[in-house]
Write a structure and sequence with these properties.
Elements lengths: L7 H8 L3 H14 L3 H11 L7 H17 L9 H18 L5 H7 L9 H24 L11 H19 L4 H10 L8
Length: about 190
């Protein structure tokens, strides 16, 4: 590991030993394996600058532990520790979105459920699926699409407004492709009504 460019701290964390123990072992090894430090330095210089450092790995471990304990990612509305974990996770998401997150970090983050997807977007997508299911049930029960202006029930109004918004987004070409396909599959020829 040392010859591959890992630092004493990284080796100690991976092997679950004290840094002083690893350091002493490497000093002894240098005595009967000359040039070990030079090979380490050459490998260390060639490492990706965005490698997962020991501090980065600890933060990931803290976020993973938080998620395991609370069954959710850290939020910005918690205590200071939770806010700090939330900020760190958001920084990883931002780096991922702009393409600045290294492959080793991506691989390590994949063990965290839903890390790369914004929690808010997950909630919005779930709400969208719920509305689509309600719309399908409404059309099956009434045989017609809901109206948003001359509605008879509050449910018809809610679904009519939702469908109208989807129609507007389709016309503006801002409706996500998977949503358009889901609407087309659920209700061929759908449209908003007055």
């Amino acid at each position: 590991m040392y010859e591959a460019g890992l630092t004493v701290r990284e080796i100690a964390d991976r092997c679950h030993h004290k840094r002083s123990t690893v350091h002493r072992h490497l000093q002894v090894r240098e005595g009967y394996q000359p040039g070990l430090r030079d090979r380490h330095n050459a490998s260390f210089v060639s490492r990706d600058p965005d490698r997962p450092t020991t501090t980065w790995r600890r933060r990931l471990k803290d976020v993973t532990a938080f998620h395991a304990e609370h069954n959710r990612p850290p939020a910005c509305t918690g205590d200071k520790k939770e806010e700090s974990l939330h900020a760190w996770l958001n920084a990883q998401r931002l780096a991922y979105r702009i393409g600045a997150l290294s492959t080793p970090k991506k691989v390590l983050l994949d063990s965290l459920p839903g890390w790369s997807i914004e929690t808010r977007q997950q909630q919005l997508d779930q709400q969208w699926h719920t509305r689509l299911a309600q719309l399908k049930e409404y059309v099956a029960a009434t045989g017609q699409l809901p109206r948003y202006k001359r509605f008879q029930t509050e449910l018809e109004h809610t679904l009519g407004v939702w469908l109208h918004v989807q129609h507007q987004r389709r016309a503006e070409k801002t409706l996500r492709q998977w949503r358009l396909e889901a609407l087309d599959a659920a209700l061929p020829g759908w449209r908003s009504r007055n």
